[in-house]
Amino acid sequence: MLYDPTERRIRSFVTRAGRLSPAQARAIETLGPQFCIPYEKAPCDFAQSFGRSAPTILEIGFGMGDTTAKIAAGMPDKDFIGVEVHTPGVGSLLKLIGEQGLTNLHLIQHDAVEVITNMIAPESLAGVHVFFPDPWHKARHNKRRLIQPAFVKLLVSRIAPGGYLHCATDWQDYAEQMLEVLSAEPALQNTAEAYAPRPEYRPVTKFENRGLRLGHGVWDLVFAKR
């Protein structure tokens, strides 16, 4: 049984005010009406939103949006929906959308669990990206981590057969938890023996490059829906 987001639950994010730059504010004002999809408790019609029918990929927590914009630019035959709660990140990605002339990327500023529950129809996604979610590295906070059995089951219900779930983290113990949780979901099949090589479509971020230079690991997990 999928859990109801209206019930009391532990959130995997903390809403931060953050400073909104003039350029981000301008992007929200000028591009938001065209590229932001308002949250509502009704399934989103992807074809109507994008003006075409194409495989749709959902990204959860896109941060400042650099990676999301690069992936969307590299896959013009696919449509992307990015979900993020923090306003500066939304403004930053909207600015990139405008600068790069991206037409295959739309945003929803809202809690991802509620978006997936209420706005994403069953088996409507070609893929889901969850890149570097908050690791909540203190043991007492591990329960706040996004990748948990109930959430994965919800995600899988929205992915079409043959679609995929791609997670990435730079925290080894979170990678181990992800591998355990995803491997335990009967509707998913690992595409690798354990951790997958980084797919070419996922660019290496500046933060990731810095970590790699310091000897930190990065783990990708790519599971296909049966």
TrEMBL record:
Pfam families found in the cross-reference section: Methyltransf_4
PROSITE patterns: SAM_MT_TRMB
Transmembrane segments: none
Residues reported in the UniProt entry to bind substrate: K138, D170, T205, K206, F207, E208
InterPro entries, sorted: SAM-dependent_MTases_sf (IPR029063), tRNA_(Gua-N-7)_MeTrfase_Trmb (IPR003358), tRNA_methyltr_TrmB_bact (IPR055361)
Functional pathway: tRNA modification; N(7)-methylguanine-tRNA biosynthesis
Superkingdom to which the source organism belongs: Bacteria
Reactions that this protein is recorded to catalyse: guanosine(46) in tRNA + S-adenosyl-L-methionine = N(7)-methylguanosine(46) in tRNA + S-adenosyl-L-homocysteine
Cellular component aspect of the GO annotation: tRNA methyltransferase complex
Spans annotated as Interaction with RNA: 140-145
Gene3D superfamilies given in the database record: Vaccinia Virus protein VP39 (3.40.50.150)
Keyword set, alphabetical order: Methyltransferase, S-adenosyl-L-methionine, Transferase, tRNA processing
Binding site for S-adenosyl-L-methionine: E59, E84, D111, D134
GO molecular function, one term: tRNA (guanine(46)-N7)-methyltransferase activity
EC number(s) from the headed UniProt entry: 2.1.1.33
Alphabetized HAMAP family for the sequence: tRNA_methyltr_TrmB
Function description: Catalyzes the formation of N(7)-methylguanine at position 46 (m7G46) in tRNA.
Protein family (similarity comment): Belongs to the class I-like SAM-binding methyltransferase superfamily. TrmB family.
Name the UniProt record assigns to this protein: tRNA (guanine-N(7)-)-methyltransferase
Organism listed in the record: Noviherbaspirillum cavernae
Name of the coding gene: trmB
